């Protein structure tokens, strides 16, 4: 059964080679999502998440809300395994795919076709799996003969179309997103929207960070409101959204 269980998960980022008092003095003057403190050795740390606990089950569509620096991106990276909790536990059952950075692994000197294999490999796809879908990926990207040209010759929009086309062929049990993906011109956007909706519908658990009230109201059946690395509220969108966004 697909599930995610966090128990009192905390993430600290130590700041090395810095004087604790002077660093605190400087940082306290600027906005920070985490909390500045010191560990048992006296080293300055930024606490990005503190004692976060929740359980996600099959069918959960979870929206992460909170101001910039609240800990949303850290939580997504903790979910994906990029970060390990400093304390507490994280237990994930199910295959995870992340659409946090769809351009990760893209090589501007390689052709579009070669980049499909590079990006697909990073998503955990075997070469034979990409072989079976490459014609569909190329067709969806609408790049035609450009697919065998170096990516550096592409416009930004063309590069995003390649990255989007290959990144959305996966069908994971758990899908992580940092905002809804929006790529290409109006014609491509419509196709991309349908493809993304199909991907979301096919996944068991969705976790998406967003600042859009309309989006989370449409997509999510649960919201977690984070501030300064702590969970302020966790519940149904109709209960949580008014407290964060206002009526």
Structure summarized in a few sentences:
The protein has 247 residues and is α/β, with parallel strands linked by helices. The protein is 36% helix and 27% strand.
Q: In words, what does this structure look like?
A:
The protein is α/β, with parallel strands linked by helices and 247 residues long. The chain has two domains: 3-94 and 208-245, Rossmann fold (3-Layer(aba) Sandwich), CATH 3.40.50; 112-203, no CATH class. The chain is 36% helix and 27% strand. It is built from eight helices and ten strands. It has helices spanning 20-27, 72-80, 112-122, 127-141, 156-167, 186-202, 213-219, 237-245, and strands spanning 3-14, 35-38, 44-57, 61-65, 87-93, 96-98, 174-178, 205-209, 222-227, 230-235. A six-stranded mixed β-sheet has the order 6-7-8-4-9-10, sandwiched between helices. A four-stranded antiparallel β-sheet has the order 2-3-1-5. Helix 3 (112-122) packs across helix 4 (127-141), helix 3 crosses helix 5 and helix 4 packs across helix 5. The radius of gyration is 20 Å and the shape is globular. It starts with a strand and ends with a helix.
Which structural class best describes the helix and strand composition? alpha/beta
**How many strand elements?**
10
- Report strand %: 25-35%
Task: Return the CATH architecture of the largest domain.
Answer: 3-Layer(aba) Sandwich
| Overall number of structural domains | 2
CATH homology superfamily of the largest domain: P-loop containing nucleotide triphosphate hydrolases
User: What's the story with the biggest beta sheet?
Assistant: 6 strands, mixed
Radius of gyration: 20 Å
CATH topology of the largest domain: Rossmann fold
Mean pLDDT: 88
Cα distance, first to last residue? Answer: 37 Å
Poorly predicted regions: 28-32
Q: Give the SSE string.
A: EHEEEHEEHHHEHEHEEH
Tally of contiguous helical segments: 8
Under CATH at level 1, the class of the largest domain stands as: Alpha Beta
């Amino acid at each position: 059964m697909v599930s995610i269980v966090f128990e009192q998960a905390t993430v600290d980022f130590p700041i090395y080679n810095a004087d604790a008092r002077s660093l605190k003095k400087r940082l306290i003057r600027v906005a920070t999502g985490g909390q500045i403190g010191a560990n048992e050795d006296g080293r300055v740390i930024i606490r990005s998440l503190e004692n976060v606990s929740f359980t996600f089950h099959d069918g959960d569509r979870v929206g992460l809300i909170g101001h910039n620096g609240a800990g949303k991106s850290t939580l997504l990276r903790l979910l994906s395994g990029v970060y390990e909790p400093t304390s507490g536990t994280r237990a994930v059952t199910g295959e995870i795919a992340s659409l946090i950075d769809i351009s990760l692994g893209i090589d501007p000197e390689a052709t579009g076709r070669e980049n499909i294999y590079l990006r697909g490999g990073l998503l955990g796809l075997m070469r034979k799996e990409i072989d079976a879908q490459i014609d569909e990926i190329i067709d969806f990207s609408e790049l035609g003969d450009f697919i065998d040209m170096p990516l550096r010759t592409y416009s930004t929009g063309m590069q995003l179309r390649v990255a989007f086309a290959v990144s959305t062929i996966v069908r994971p049990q758990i899908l992580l997103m940092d905002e809804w993906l929006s790529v290409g011109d109006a014609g491509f956007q419509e196709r991309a929207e349908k493809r993304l909706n199909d991907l979301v519908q096919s996944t068991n658990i969705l976790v998406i960070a967003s600042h859009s009230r309309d989006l989370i109201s449409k997509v999510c059946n649960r919201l977690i409101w984070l501030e300064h690395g702590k969970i302020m509220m966790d519940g149904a969108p109709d209960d949580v959204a008014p407290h964060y966004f206002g009526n």
